[in-house]
Each structure stands twice: as structure tokens, then as C-alpha cells.
Amino acid sequence: QAQIVESGGDLVQPGGSLRLSCVASGSIFGGRTLGWYRQAPGQQRASVAWIMIDSRTWYADSVRGRFTISRDTQKNTVDLQMNDLKPEDTAIYYCNAKPPIPALWGQGTEVTVSS
Questions:
Q1: What is the chain's percent helix, strand, coil content, to nearest 5?
Q2: How many CB atoms neighbour CB 18 within 10 A?
Q3: How many alpha carbons lie under 13 Å from residue 17 in its C-beta half-sphere?
Q4: What residues contact residue 68 under an 8 Å CB cut-off, 6+ apart?
Q5: How far is it, in rounded angstroms, from Cα 63 to Cα 56?
Q6: Which is the most buried residue in 54, 96, 98, 110, by most CB within 10 A?
């Protein structure tokens, strides 16, 4: 059964950095646009960044210039480098395909930005 596992979340001070990683079992990422999503407390899950198979990227306005998405197609991984973190980045972060495949939502990884 295909599975996605996210990691790298932590408690960090404002202005700090984190690198989130996501690994998929099998080849479920192959040929797909991949995305990072986040769900803040009391809010709906929202897109943060996407990366297409040709490495073109898209970022939400709120993270553009601070976050960088990357992928390794051979390792079936997609990472999210997050710099200059702000309290409003606090959320559970998930990766999935774009559009997301409902059966592939993992547990996510929690990011808390607080002093």
C-alpha cells in the first residue's frame, strides 16, 4: 500500500529555519506534480508550494521568497526548506501530489514558530 511519511517539524523561534522532508513508498510520486500543504489550527488545509516534473515551482504569496521546494525523483522525496519562519507559519505540514490523492494523506509534521 502506498504511503507518505513527512518529517522535520519542530519548535523554532521566529526568524529560524527548518527543512521538512517527505518520502513516498514505491513510485507514487513518479510523473506527478508534488506539493506541500499546511493546516493551521482552526483553518482549512491550504497549498504552500508545488513542484512540477520539470522542476517549475509555485509558492503561496505568504511564503514566496522564504520557502523553497525541491524533489528527488530517484529517491521519491520532496523537501521544503523554510527560512525566516514567522508565527503565522505554525501548522501541521503535509505533502501529497497536486492535485492531492485523498488516500495518500499522511500524519503530517508539526511546525511551531514561537518565542
A1: 5, 45, 50
A2: 20
A3: 7
A4: 80, 81, 83
A5: 16
A6: 96
Which DSSP state fits 37? E
Pairing label, strands 109-113, 11-12: parallel
94 contacts 37 by C-beta, under 8 angstroms: yes
Cell of 54: 520539470
Q: What is the 3-state secondary structure (H, E, C) of 74-86?
A: CCCEEEEEECCCC
Cell numbers for 85: 519562519
Residues 6+ apart with CB under 8 A from 56: none
